[in-house]
Each structure stands twice: as structure tokens, then as C-alpha cells.
UniProtKB/TrEMBL annotation:
<dbReference type="Pfam" id="PF01061">
    <property type="entry name" value="ABC2_membrane"/>
</dbReference>
<dbReference type="InterPro" id="IPR000412">
    <property type="entry name" value="ABC_2_transport"/>
</dbReference>
<keyword id="KW-0813">Transport</keyword>
<comment type="similarity">
    <text>Belongs to the ABC-2 integral membrane protein family.</text>
</comment>
<feature type="transmembrane region" description="Helical">
    <location>
        <begin position="21"/>
        <end position="41"/>
    </location>
</feature>
<feature type="transmembrane region" description="Helical">
    <location>
        <begin position="53"/>
        <end position="78"/>
    </location>
</feature>
<feature type="transmembrane region" description="Helical">
    <location>
        <begin position="130"/>
        <end position="152"/>
    </location>
</feature>
<protein>
    <recommendedName>
        <fullName>Transport permease protein</fullName>
    </recommendedName>
</protein>
<dbReference type="InterPro" id="IPR052902">
    <property type="entry name" value="ABC-2_transporter"/>
</dbReference>
<feature type="domain" description="ABC transmembrane type-2">
    <location>
        <begin position="20"/>
        <end position="244"/>
    </location>
</feature>
<feature type="transmembrane region" description="Helical">
    <location>
        <begin position="164"/>
        <end position="184"/>
    </location>
</feature>
<dbReference type="InterPro" id="IPR013525">
    <property type="entry name" value="ABC2_TM"/>
</dbReference>
<keyword id="KW-1133">Transmembrane helix</keyword>
<feature type="transmembrane region" description="Helical">
    <location>
        <begin position="219"/>
        <end position="241"/>
    </location>
</feature>
<keyword id="KW-0812">Transmembrane</keyword>
<keyword id="KW-1003">Cell membrane</keyword>
<dbReference type="GO" id="GO:0140359">
    <property type="term" value="F:ABC-type transporter activity"/>
</dbReference>
Length: 246
């Protein structure tokens, strides 16, 4: 584990040296929340405020962006440039590399989630989660599902450009069709069915629900779906891990 921690620490330092990654991970979600707040904060129907609906949703979106761009695309770049081949000549096993990047991604995600929460509290009077223990468990389950899912999907890419294209496709599909940005009720019926195929839909339902309504025990179906995605993704990510793009 000492090796995993050292590698995760190194990757985290490298991440913070990349200004573009820092912007998309930390500042872009804040800007989007501010834009949507300008449009919808006074027009929310139902029992919940704008912040209670959108902040948990964008925390879920941050799991997706961290999974695909901080983990998946970076590893695809390492594979293409030969970094992973150099690792192969060391005692590092694949699981240690995946574990280190998962640890790094978790740290970065936690920082981004806290930033969104503070922004929501300052700007929109966001209240803490009603069931904070359940919300934290929901976040853990969501990370457990999405991180290996992104690692598996991007492992199928031949190069960094392909991995970035795949990541962008998945992000945009889930961003606009999962209920994260626009209520599902506004969409045609067929798109509402499509939303329920997307993993982010279940993350959002779980986070919104535990934040505002009930403990996680009331969301067994969503938990089951995400855990199933996690198990399948971990198996596939390990099976298709490649040291090089050859």
C-alpha cells in the first residue's frame, strides 16, 4: 500500500500542475451551477429548492468527469506514450496502478464536491444533506461504480484522442439525458426511457434522494444497479488492462 500511496501522491501533484484540468474539474462545475442558478433558481416547482436539486446532481456529474478525464483518459495517454510500459518493467502490478489512480481521483473528487457544497451554501443557501451518512455512502457506491466503468471503457481506446472522444460522448449523453441538467419530465417519453439506461441517472436519483428525502435503505434498487455496474466494470477493467497500445 505504501507504493500505491506514493504513486497516488505523485499523480495528484501532476494533476494540479495542469491548469486546464484544474479548470474543468473545479471551476467549470461552479460556473455551470451559477449559469443554471441564474436561469432556474427562482422558478423551481416542487418541494425542493434549486440548490437541493442541482448541487447533488452536479456532484454526480463531477464523479463522471473525474472518472473519464482524470482517470481513464490519463491512463490512455500513459499507454500511448509508453509510460505504462516503463511501469511494466518494475514490480508494479496492474492493480496497484489502478488503485493509485483511483485514490488520486477520489481525492480530487472530494475537493471538487466540497467546493460545490460551499458555493451552494454561500450563493443559494444550500442546507447540508438530511441523511449525511447515507449521502456519503451513496457517494462511495457511485465512485465504486463509475471509476472502474470509465477505466474499462477508455481501455478500449487505441490512443488518447479516441479515449477523449469516448469520454466526451459519454459525458454529454449522461449530462443532458440523465436528469442532471434538465428535468426528465420536460423530455419526450422515449428519452425518459433512455435516461434509465444511463448509469448517471441512478447516481443522481441516489444523491438527490439521500440529500433531501430518505436514508439510503429506501433506494435499494439504485444501489443494486450501481453495485452491479461496479462488479462487472472491475472484472472487465482488470481483464482488458493493457500495458501498451500494441
Amino acid at each position: 500500500m505504501n507504493t500505491v500511496v506514493k504513486l497516488a501522491n505523485l499523480e495528484t501533484k501532476m494533476f494540479f500542475r495542469d491548469r486546464l484540468s484544474v479548470f474543468w474539474t473545479f471551476l467549470f462545475p461552479v460556473v455551470m451551477i451559477w449559469l443554471f442558478g441564474s436561469m432556474f433558481s427562482g422558478d423551481m416547482a416542487g418541494p425542493f429548492t434549486f440548490a437541493e436539486v442541482f448541487i447533488p446532481s452536479w456532484i454526480g456529474v463531477n464523479i463522471v468527469t473525474t472518472s473519464f478525464f482524470t482517470l481513464g483518459t490519463v491512463l490512455a495517454g500513459y499507454r500511448e506514450t509508453g509510460v505504462l510500459r516503463r511501469y511494466q518493467s518494475t514490480p508494479l502490478q496492474p492493480w496497484k496502478i489502478l488503485a493509485a489512480h483511483t485514490m488520486q481521483g477520489t481525492v480530487i473528487f472530494i475537493i471538487s464536491a466540497l467546493l460545490l457544497m460551499v458555493f451552494g451554501m454561500v450563493m443559494y443557501d444550500l442546507q447540508p444533506p438530511m441523511y449525511i451518512g447515507s449521502t456519503l455512502l451513496a457517494l462511495f457506491i457511485s465512485i465504486l461504480a463509475f471509476f472502474p466503468f470509465a477505466l474499462f471503457v477508455t481501455s478500449l481506446a487505441k490512443n488518447t484522442q479516441s479515449a477523449a472522444a469516448i469520454s466526451s460522448l459519454f459525458l454529454n449523453l449522461m449530462l443532458f439525458l440523465s436528469g442532471a441538467t434538465f428535468p426528465l419530465e420536460m423530455m419526450p417519453t422515449i428519452l425518459q426511457y433512455v435516461a434509465k439506461v444511463l448509469p448517471l441517472y441512478y447516481v443522481i436519483q441516489l444523491l438527490r434522494g439521500t440529500w433531501n428525502e430518505a436514508p439510503i435503505s429506501e433506494f435499494g434498487f439504485e444501489v443494486g444497479i450501481l453495485l452491479a455496474i461496479s462488479v462487472v466494470s472491475i472484472v472487465l477493467a482488470s481483464r482488458y488492462f493493457k500495458w501498451s497500445d500494441k
